[in-house]
């Protein structure tokens, strides 16, 4: 029996023909990295390959690593295996990874979404024989509204809080989600303040994207300075001593998990906005259909339910276990990063 082009082992997703790993979760010699969230880009590899816009981000997170950059659609060969990176639309610098060898083509998506968020290169369907897809939100109830509507609601919420003399605190991941929020906030309402983790990451990304001005919250910041304005913070800041100086404040979270009211109650959040950097149910199906792949491998998320549905639709679908976490429910990527981002 022929060895599959990509296999899942204790270190990650391995291409034996090229002797290279994709988003490995244990230290390896050579790794191709889809994006810089902590569950996909780990410290300790001897050599990293990623999209060139991801290099300053991954260095901010991991330090001075041995990393080389590639452009989208640029083909590079390792031991006669052809690789190329293609836009995943997940966050800035995120990539799908195409692998071709002896006429066989596989695509690993990493994390992805098909909606244009205004800061990431838009998702590009890549035709293949085998498609490795996340299914973080692989259930029919997950159905995203157009982001224009979501951001109208966020800005209206902020404006209402301002009229009531309250500070608006909006939680979102420091890498990706925070910059997406920042890009679409209406700065005519007031000033945008930031937690240090978000400010530091945003400063790395500013040279690549036009973003509104922000003000870092410091020890000298008074709660009266914040009244009527909005604060962007990572979810890990909720309930911390850092946030206590902001009373009176109103909290909100921007996440796909805000689809369910129970998630908002568990987090003790006043308001939930359904906004994800992953595909919803229909987005996953649309992306899979566009690849024209027959074999589908489902990772991290509702893998069993989603793969069973795909099999009912005629796909050769199965699941594989990984150490990827998708969009975290009860903690945030910053915790996995040790606070670096």
TrEMBL record:
InterPro entries noted in UniProt: MBL, RibonucZ/Hydroxyglut_hydro, Xnuc_lig_assoc
Native species: Aquimarina aggregata
Lineage of producing organism: Bacteria, Pseudomonadati, Bacteroidota, Flavobacteriia, Flavobacteriales
Region of interest (Disordered), residue spans: 321-341
UniProtKB keywords: Ligase
UniProt-recorded name of the protein: DNA ligase-associated DEXH box helicase
Heme is among the record's keywords: no
Any one Gene Ontology molecular-function term assigned to this protein's record: RNA endonuclease activity
Biased amino acid composition, Basic and acidic residues: 332-341
């Amino acid at each position: 029996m022929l060895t599959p082009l990509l296999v899942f082992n204790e270190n990650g997703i391995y291409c034996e023909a090229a002797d290279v790993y994709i988003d490995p979760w244990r230290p390896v010699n050579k790794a191709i990295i889809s994006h810089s969230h902590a569950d996909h880009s780990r410290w300790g590899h001897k050599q990293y390959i990623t999209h060139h816009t991801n290099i300053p981000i991954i260095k901010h997170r991991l330090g001075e690593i041995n990393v080389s950059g590639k452009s989208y659609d640029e083909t590079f060969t390792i031991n006669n295996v052809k690789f190329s990176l293609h836009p995943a639309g997940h966050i800035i610098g995120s990539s799908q990874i195409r692998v071709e060898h002896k006429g066989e083509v596989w695509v690993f998506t990493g994390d992805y979404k098909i909606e244009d968020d205004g800061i990431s290169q838009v998702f590009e369907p890549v035709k293949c024989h085998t498609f490795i897809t996340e299914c973080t939100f692989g259930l029919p109830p997950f159905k995203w509204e157009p982001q224009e509507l979501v951001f109208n609601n966020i800005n209206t919420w902020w404006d209402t809080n301002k009229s009531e003399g309250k500070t608006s605190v909006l939680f979102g991941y420091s890498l990706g989600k925070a910059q997406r929020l920042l890009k679409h906030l209406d700065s005519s309402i007031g000033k945008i303040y930031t937690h240090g983790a978000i400010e530091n990451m945003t400063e790395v990304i500013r040279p690549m994207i036009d973003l509104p001005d922000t003000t870092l919250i410091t020890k000298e910041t008074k709660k009266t300075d914040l009244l009527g304005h909005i604060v962007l913070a990572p979810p890990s800041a909720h309930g911390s001593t850092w946030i206590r100086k902001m009373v009176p404040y109103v909290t909100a979270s921007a996440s796909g998990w805000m689809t369910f009211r129970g998630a908002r109650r568990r987090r003790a959040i006043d308001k939930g906005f359904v906004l994800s950097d992953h595909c919803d149910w229909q987005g996953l199906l649309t992306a899979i259909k566009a690849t024209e792949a027959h074999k589908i491998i489902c990772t991290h998320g509702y893998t069993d339910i989603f793969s069973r549905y795909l099999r009912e639709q005629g796909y050769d679908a199965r699941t594989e276990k990984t150490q990827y976490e998708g969009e975290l429910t009860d903690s945030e990527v910053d915790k996995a990063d040790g606070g670096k981002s």
